[in-house]
Write a structure and sequence with these properties.
By secondary structure, the protein is an alpha/beta fold. Helices cover 46% and strands 14% of the residues. It binds one RNA strand through β4, α6, β10, α7 and α9.
RNA sequence: GCCGGUGUAGCUCAGUGGUUAGAGCGAACGACUCAUAAUCGUUAGGUCACUGGUUCGAUCCCAGUCACCGGCACCA
């Protein structure tokens, strides 16, 4: 009986391209997990989309003198390109600027209102006289009343560290244009988190969450320990989902971005179902059974900056709505640094995906990002390390193993050779293969992707060892039957390794699948399709058919006699000179 | 300032209250030559940030110090 698995991935702001940290922290881990689950025969729904609302989008639009829609149209396609190039297999990567999302968000809002979880409160907003609109506190600065620091931010003084409200600042002004800021009362809807807190605690404490990552759990508990307060979910903005109440006071307000963005997981699932011609199919991942149990396990792949939104606020929204499945796991990742320093968009210290995705093999990028993923703590992208690991691990240990075994076998036999009786060494390697397969399966189930990759590579090393000891290239001349047995064993291990590597390295695994004489798809790839945006204009989405082959995740049973294709290397070795070139490229961007 | 995290071999990272703390890469030496000069073996290399405490025993638990990082709620 296959399980239903929901793979939810953080919604990126459509105000700039991806950098490698986004890929390593969310999209690649999610794809590896989704590919593995599909191979196991489970029914996977993997969704995300571009976050089209929020201040960053509005600001980017104003800065360039274009509309928010044009900002989205600039970056959304770049996300799709990156996913297609790197082979990220979304069932649907859509956007929040769609009629469906507006409808679902409206429905969520009204249902929470009806259930009594939304309340109206008046707050003081920072208002820019020059722009004629309200500003987020972080766009307000002024002189600190405590230490006299002239550039204290609205929420905290960077000089003396004191926390405060923007109203306390002397001569408050907008960081956008330096114009004066005044303060006005403004009424908003708040989600009553205090009212939802008991249900939230019951959910969190109801089962042993020991399988959650320690950091996620700790973070969530600390947030909860402080107690929850109502949180505003509307804003004085003109860009976003309208507040669905019949009240002129809310005509110029919108639902705030963090509320509608998390709803995207749900709305995208509904959009996927409609697109695939089975409009109710989303229910199999979302609607709880009559006994209250979840119909699917849902995993949320996000960065650590997003933890409270996925372990507290989104669950609270779901609880307030009722009858929908809460997160099963939130495998949050830490951050990826670049050459030892934190990536920074403003300093242009970042490795942008569009700048490298076409210059390296996708599996080389996937390998390094997976092997070096920030699973338990911040990790680091270094070009020297990238070249070294790709060359020694991916090319030399794994690629060369596959190539050497295929080369000897193809030249001497042409097909998978018929084995004779197995020797101890043969049985030992095959036993180790079974053990590794089991271990990797358990690690992937627990979303321990790095450890799974390490285990897999260790099996490739064991296979290289076996070949060194058995020396089949000598035996083909002296004992052809024994050489056939050794190569048969080696091929089965390579075939198993192909399966174990395929969630991580889909392109080369598919190729190897064919070299080994199989037909069909082991590692499917996504495609781009047309769709319609909220305003009726054309847009694109990423989707795909990822047919489930229930026998695919298994130790090899490669049959003797299967014809092998003429082998060729799977991976390109990298020239060490490119380390200096890439470093120079990075430095040039910072100077510019 | 408050809360929290991290600090382990040259590099990137695992890990544990208990005999000699691990892996990969890098380094040195050797073997092999089927394979993209790839592979295999051997060796070298660490007061597990620092100080103190608990304990028969601490890299691991506790306290403090230093360094770096994150959160602190209209920032997602």
């Amino acid at each position: 009986m296959p399980d239903n698995i929901l793979v939810s991935v953080a919604w990126p702001y459509a105000n700039g391209p991806f950098h490698v940290g986004h890929v390593a922290g969310a999209y690649l881990p999610a794809d590896i997990f989704a590919r593995y689950q599909r191979l196991r025969g489970n029914r996977v729904l993997m969704v995300s989309g571009s976050d089209c609302h929020g201040t960053p989008i509005t600001l980017a639009a104003e800065k360039e003198g274009i509309s928010p829609q044009e900002v989205i149209q600039r970056y959304h396609p770049s996300f799709l390109k990156t996913f297609q190039t790197l082979g990220i297999t979304f069932d649907l990567f859509t956007q929040t600027y769609t009629a469906n999302h507006y409808r679902v968000t409206t429905d969520m809002f009204l249902r929470l209102l009806e259930h009594g979880y939304l309340i109206r409160q008046t707050m003081v907003g920072s208002y820019s006289e020059s722009l004629g609109r309200f500003l987020p506190d972080r766009f307000v600065e002024g002189t600190c009343p405590n230490c006299g620091f002239p550039r204290a931010r609205g929420d905290q003084c960077d000089n003396c560290g004191q926390l405060r409200d923007p109203q306390d600042l002397i001569a408050p002004r907008s960081t956008l244009d330096g114009a004066p800021v005044t303060f006005h009362d403004t009424e908003h809807y708040f989600i009553d988190l205090a009212k939802l807190e008991p249900a939230l605690r019951a959910w969190l404490d109801g089962v042993d969450r020991g399988y959650w990552r320690a950091n996620t759990l700790l973070f969530t508990r600390n947030w909860l320990r402080e107690g929850l307060r109502a949180r505003a979910i509307t804003r004085d903005l003109e860009w976003g989902v309208p507040v669905p109440v019949d009240d002129p006071a809310f005509k110029d307000k919108r639902i705030y971005v963090w509320f509608d963005a998390v709803i995207g997981y749900f709305s995208a699932s509904i959009e996927w179902a409609e697109r695939s011609g089975a409009p109710d199919a989303w229910k199999e991942w979302w609607v709880c059974r009559p006994d209250g149990s979840a119909p699917a396990r849902s995993y949320y792949f996000i960065g650590k900056d997003n933890i409270p939104f996925h372990t507290i606020i989104w669950p609270a929204i779901l609880l307030g709505y009722g009858d929908l499945a809460l997160p099963y796991d939130v495998p949050a990742n830490e951050f990826l640094n670049l050459e030892g320093d934190k990536m920074s968009t403003s300093r242009n210290w970042a490795l942008w995906a569009p700048e490298i995705e076409d210059r390296y093999q996708p599996d080389a990028l996937r390998y390094y990002l997976a092997a070096n993923a920030p699973e338990t703590r911040d990790s680091n992208w270094s070009w020297a390390d990238f070249v070294q690991r790709v060359n020694s691990e991916l090319v030399a240990t794994w690629g060369n193993l596959a190539n050497r075994v295929l080369s000897i076998t193809h030249r001497n036999y042409g097909v998978v050779p018929q084995p004779g009786d197995l020797a101890d060494a043969d049985r030992q390697l095959l036993a180790a293969t079974g053990q590794t397969f089991q271990a990797v399966t358990e690690l992937l189930d627990g979303v321990k992707l790095k450890a799974a990759l390490t285990e897999t590579l260790a099996l490739a090393q064991a296979a290289n060892q076996y070949l060194s000891e058995q020396e089949p290239w000598k035996m083909v001349k002296t004992d052809r039957a024994r050489a056939a047995t050794v190569l048969f064993v080696a091929l089965r291990v390579v075939d198993t390794l192909k399966t174990l590597f395929s969630p991580f390295l889909p392109f080369s695994s598919q190729r190897l699948h064919e070299l080994l004489g199989y037909q069909g798809i082991l590692a499917p790839q996504p495609r781009i399709e047309d769709a319609i945006a909220f305003d009726g204009t054309p847009r694109t989405v990423l989707t795909g058919d990822y047919p489930v082959d229930t026998g695919a995740w298994a130790v090899s049973d490669l049959p003797p006699g299967q014809a092998l294709q003429s082998p060729a290397p799977l991976f390109q070795k990298l020239d060490e000179a490119l380390v200096a070139e890439e470093l120079e490229r990075l430095r040039a961007k910072v100077r510019a």
